[in-house]
# Entry
Amino acid sequence: MRWITARRRHPAAGYAVVLLMLVAIGMGYAAISGQGAASASAPAADQRQIAKGQDLFAANCSTCHGLEAQGTAVAPSLIGVGAAAVDFQVSTGRMPSAGPGAENARKDVATAFASKKYGEQYIHDVAAYVQSLGGGPTIPSASQVSTAGASLAVGQQLFIANCAQCHNFVGAGGALTYGKYAPALTQATPTQIYEAMLTGPEAMPVFSDTTLRPANKRDIVAYVVETRSEPNPGGFSLGRIGPVTEGLVAFLGLLFFMVLAALWITAKQGKTKPNE
# Structure
């Protein structure tokens, strides 16, 4: 104790204590952040899957995106876009694209990925290869997109606040500027809706987990899926694109009635004149 008492009065003792505390804090932070990163990272894809995905990429995607996915004059780089973007674009038939345009429309999945037995696996192989190039959002699991316990009320509020301006309040889609459009969500699967929020395809913004929590994304998915089965108590749905169409139909119907009424009145007056 006397030795410690004598040493703590040394002028350098205070600096030594501060240095030791900084080292201890740094080691503690490194341990905590290391554990968080390990728990957040997805399992590494099998090297054989990546190699197979590279072969599929070279055969079906490299013409536009380059042999190393570095991008070309007609297609952007895929480094860092993540597996979720690949799965969304290929599973919806938007990629491979027939040619550059303002908007890539949803279509049948390309023949190379349309096999009932291996099609989905081929898409995941290419996604694993692109994921290995620079990371990015991964393909969400079934539990991540599950709508069990999701709130339809919260999903409706979030959809109206963030999505309805382009996709319409029931996901019927709508026109945008410069030839682009927000597609209808009637055919999108829960996984594709979730991936679209993660990756922001075309003109859509990216809704990261810091912008919309995963639970909120599931609420939106639940709302979009629920609207597909809702009845139309007013009769015809008229595309379910809102009051503009309803007002137009009412206006045209009233105009048609007025024209018929005018023709009937004119024809009746024409018949009564000779008798006078």
Summary: The chain has a mean pLDDT of 83.
